[in-house]
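User: For my dataset I need records formatted as: sequence, then structure tokens, nothing else. Please produce one.
Assistant:
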Amino acid sequence: MSKGSLRREDTTGSMYIDLGATTPEAYAISHTSRMLARKTLGNSGPEDRVRQRCSVAVGDFSFAELMRFERDPVAAGMAALSRGADVYTDIRMVEAGIQKRGHSSKVRCALDRGGEIATATGITRTSAGFQALGRELDGSIVVVGNAPSALMAVCRMIEHGARPALVVGTPVGFVNAAESKEVLRATDVPSISNVGTRGGTPVAVASMNELITMFSEVGHEGPGN
């Protein structure tokens, strides 16, 4: 475990932990980056912490202004982690980047599902994967960092009754990336997203990993603790 406190009051205090920093040098780099982000962006609550981590991930503090939090997503994510809810990602890079310590949730990739749907319909493999998951999405955490088509598919599923506990949607690009995030924010599901064409895997992973860090800080146990 990296240096730092695990007390509840340290969630927005002066202490800092990073579950992924396993050497002194890695922790020093992470800690210095976060202190700069706290000074620049503020540190008044859990949403600020997500903004900090995402800004560090993309190397641009102005990115914090683009982030959007709908329907108390931090609380929704923490509750889902406490239940050990499955985490479903759009691509393997997002799956690989999500911290596996500090929680008991399974992190899975939608690309493992729906191959026959993609072949039959010609839609993207990520969209087909989420379609194949169906109501398995209920109560889960969905993390989309790359594919706007996948986020659109998840939003359509929500319109037809699917109920993930939280959707982190930050796909990047010039084709439907901005639009898919607007659609997500219009749903009645808790979400973390950003405005515009920017985003990507680093933002999605950073958002999810900060939720996991906060979850760990309040005393929950998971594999590797």
